[in-house]
Amino acid sequence: MKCPFCGCEETQVKDSRNTDDNTSVRRRRECPECGSRFTTFERVQLRELIVVKKNGEKTLFDRDKLERSISLAVRKRPISAERVEKIVNSLQRKFESSGESEITTKEIGMSVMEALSHLDNIAYIRFASVYKDFRSIKDLKDFVATIEKLTNNEDI
User: Fold this and answer.
1) 116: how many CB neighbours lie within 10 A of its CB?
2) Which of 20, 100, 128, 149 has the most CB atoms at less than 10 Å from its CB?
3) pLDDT of 74 above 50
4) pTM over 0.85
5) pLDDT at residue 47 above 80?
6) In a 3-state reduction of DSSP, which class is residue 115?
7) Residue 153 half-sphere exposure, CB side, CA atoms within 13 Å?
């Protein structure tokens, strides 16, 4: 593993342990050249996923992009980074184990919305406002009204 600070090609693993959900291995590393310490994560990748965008363009699945978009939706909400990590791990496993090598942005967006709808209504609305590309206040109000109806029905 290359040192992110000085570029040294060889670093030493000082500690390894499984993450809480046992989906990855956390490794603490130290660079023998500059003495810096950093953490890496090792995850299983079942298959390479190709994301098919709305315009037909294809690109490799970017786990970090998924994590950033969910983190942005939950920003300033009482949701831990560990919870976001678990959601991202769960979604990535779902996509990789689907048996398909290609996944559409629509499938990704709907899966994220599903996960956020069970986690936090505000994060759900934030993500949906970008994903569904609301054009007016009325679009947003209609969406919120739908969520309120669903929430009220669950309380009965």
Assistant:
1) 23
2) 128
3) yes
4) no
5) no
6) helix
7) 6
